[in-house]
Each structure stands twice: as C-alpha cells, then as structure tokens.
Amino acid sequence: MVKSCWKLSVEGDGSRRGTRVGGQRGGDPNGRFDGLLWYKDLGSHVNGGFSMAVIQANGLLEDQCQLESGPLSSLSSGPHGTFIGVYDGHGGPETARFINDNLFLNFKKFASEHQEVSANVIKKAFFATEEEFLSRVKHQWLERPQLASVGSCCLVGVICDGLLYVANAGDSRVVLGRAERAVRGVTAVQLSKEHNASIESVRDELQLLHPDDSQIVVLKHKVWRVKGIIQVSRSIGDAYLKKSEFNKEPLLAKFRLPEPFSKPILSPEPSIFIHKLDTKDQFLIFASDGLWEHLSNQEAVDIVHSYPRNGIAKRLVKAALKLAAKKREMRYSDLKKIDRGVRRHFHDDITVVVVFLDPSSMSRRIFSRSSTVSIRLSGGVSSSAKS
C-alpha cells in the first residue's frame, strides 16, 4: 500500500491550506505528489516566479522548505518581499520541521520590532529559533534524549527593496544566474558561504576558536568531521554539541564526548551576505547539499537557463538523480524502483527552489493581499512508494 504523509501548508497560491494528502498523482494546483517526489512546477511571488521540488531518500524526510511572499512583518505599512527557506536536517526531521514552523514567524516579529528588513533582524530570528528548539530539548530531555542529537542546516534568502539577503548556517547553497555581456548564456555566482569541515578555512576557524582542543576536527574514513562526529560546523539544534548538559546519559553513547566542554562546539550564527539586485540577475537556485553533490554551480545554472521555467526545479532534481545512478553504474529507471531508506545509499534528500527575478517587480512599492503566497512543505512518505 502506498501511503504519503507529505504535509503541505499553502496560503494565497491555491485554494487549500494545511492539507495532508495521501499518495495520489497530480491534480493538486498547489503542487503534485508522485511517490517520493513532491513538486510545484510554477508559481508566482511578488518579485517574479518560482519552481519547487523535493525528493525523499531517507526513511523519514529530513529536508523541509518554505516560500513566503507578501508582507514580511506584522505591520500594514511594513516591508514586502519574498522569504525562501531550505532546511536540511540530520539525525532526524524534528529540527528542520521546527525551523519550518517557527523561523519565518520569528523573522516577522523582529522585522516588526525594528520596522525593517536587515542582517540584524535575520540573525536575531536564527538565534531565537535556536533558543526555542534548545528549550524544547531541555523540556523533553528525560522522555526524548535523542532529540539533543538532531539538528539542521538552515539557508534563508530574503528579497526586499531591491536587495537580496542570504543567511546560511551549514552546507546548503544558493547560486545566482547572472547574464554577462562578455559571456554567452548565464554565469553562476555562488552567494552563500558554507560551513563544512571538508573546507580548509572552516577547519582553520574551528581550530582558532578551540586552540586547546587537538581533536576539534578529525579526519575519519577520509572525511573531515567536527569532533569526529559531524561534518557541519554551524547549525540549528545539535544541542549535544552546544551545551554539556545534553552530552551525557541518557543520550546514546555514540554521541557523548569523553570530556565535558565549556563553550559550544557548533554555532547557530549564520554567515550573511547582502547583494544589490540588478537587471543582469536572472534567477536564484536554493538547494540542499544533495543537489550540489551531483551538479556543479554552472551545470545547475545552465539547466535553468536552457529550459522553460515550468517544472525547472523538478528537472534539476532529476538531473541529479540521473548522475547519481550513473555514478553507481545503474540506470535511472532502476534507481527509481529503490525505496526510501535504502535510497539514501545512492543519494540524499534533495530540495530545490528556483526563484526567478522580475526586474519590474523589484522596485514595486504597492502590493495587494492577493499577492500573498505561503508554501511550507514537510512530512514525506511513511511506507512503500516509488518515484
């Protein structure tokens, strides 16, 4: 029996809200569910168009995503724009789901308090979401100690008043497709900074922050890991590497460090980059690292530039899956037959949000309620399904 627990919350860009759909194919104006794949071929936001797709590989989907477009604060005269979030969980889906439910609300709260969108507002939203999740870990410590070992990368983009704010904690990525006169086609420009121990500058940063810990980064099975456990150095959640009180029994022994630590090992602080948008900026590709394991920045940008907008996020996901199959010397059609859980041996969960930039909308100062869009996708497939 095919049973789907994709949870889709939609406002403004369709007729249904907070729906839970059982594994049928197609027919949903707010996106389509096809086994392990969810996709929305094309939608509109206040700054242009967008396309979204998510493929599940883990037994429980650990990737979550959202797109919010319209008011960015609770004030009627406040800023308008588009908020994009990609949350790549690890150790379980709980942190990514929590971020999906709370980060944008925290962002709107601080944008209302400061009456603006800024790097400071985004950073405050990250920290507030982190503290709220760690409070949940503390509250449930005796009943669910494993919650302390769950975390999530967090990639956010905010388009407002002609500026793009990019905030990243972890190793998801956003790439800009930019038209350059000297180059035929579109050039890929990476806008996010990643925090993965495989990057030398990240290892240097960790060693600088922890000069007395010779084991702060360890090469284990040819992979650099923080404390020999985790690849990312920044995240939301992962309480067991933030506070010593969560790095002890009843937490599983494999997560416990041999000695207590006095300051956090991982950080929730995002790297923030602000980019002034202009007419050369064509589109943005937000994606979890599952996409970038198989496609280079330029390869992804070339695909978006070369094909119609309709269904372009799904096309990127399928391009990555075909490469994943090729690397294992198998056919894409055979990969599609592999169920969730086992599928993780071939590729990760993959989330892609392609956001097209309409130059005429960037300077628009008047927005109507009908332009409000809210899409949050979570859940996944809970029993046998193929895609």
From TrEMBL:
InterPro entries: PP2C, PP2C_BS, PPM-type-like_dom_sf, PPM-type_phosphatase-like_dom
Pfam families noted in UniProt: PP2C
Residues of the PPM-type phosphatase domain: 49-357
Transmembrane helix found in the keyword field: no
Entry's Gene Ontology molecular function annotations: metal ion binding; protein serine/threonine phosphatase activity
Cofactor(s) required for function per UniProt: Mn(2+); Mg(2+)
Family under the similarity heading: Belongs to the PP2C family.
Protein name in UniProt: protein-serine/threonine phosphatase
Source organism of the structure: Cinchona calisaya
